[in-house]
Amino acid sequence: MNFSELPLADEVLDALDAMRFTTCTPIQEQSIPPIIEGRDLLGVAQTGTGKTAAYLLPILSKLNSGDYPQNHINCLIMCPTRELAQQIDQQVEAFSYYMPVSGVAVYGGNDGIRYEQEKNGLRLGADIVTATPGRMLSHIATGNVDLSQLSFFVLDEADRMLDMGFYDDIIKIVSQLPKERQTILFSATMPQNIQVLANTILTNPVEIKIAVAKPVEKIHQKAYICYEPMKDKILIDLLTKEQMDRVILFVSSKQKVKEINRMLKMRGMDAECMHSDLTQAERDQIMLRFKNRHISILVATDIVARGIDIDDIQTVINYDVPHDGEDYIHRIGRTARANRDGEAITLVSPKDIVYMQRIERLMEREIEKPQLPEGCGESPEYKAEHDSRGRHSRRHRGEKGGRKDRNNAHQQDRNRKSHKKSPSNPNGTSSMEVKSKKRRHSHKNLSESAQNVEPKAPKE
Question: In terms of CATH architecture, what is 219-421?
Answer without folding.
Answer: 3-Layer(aba) Sandwich (3.40)
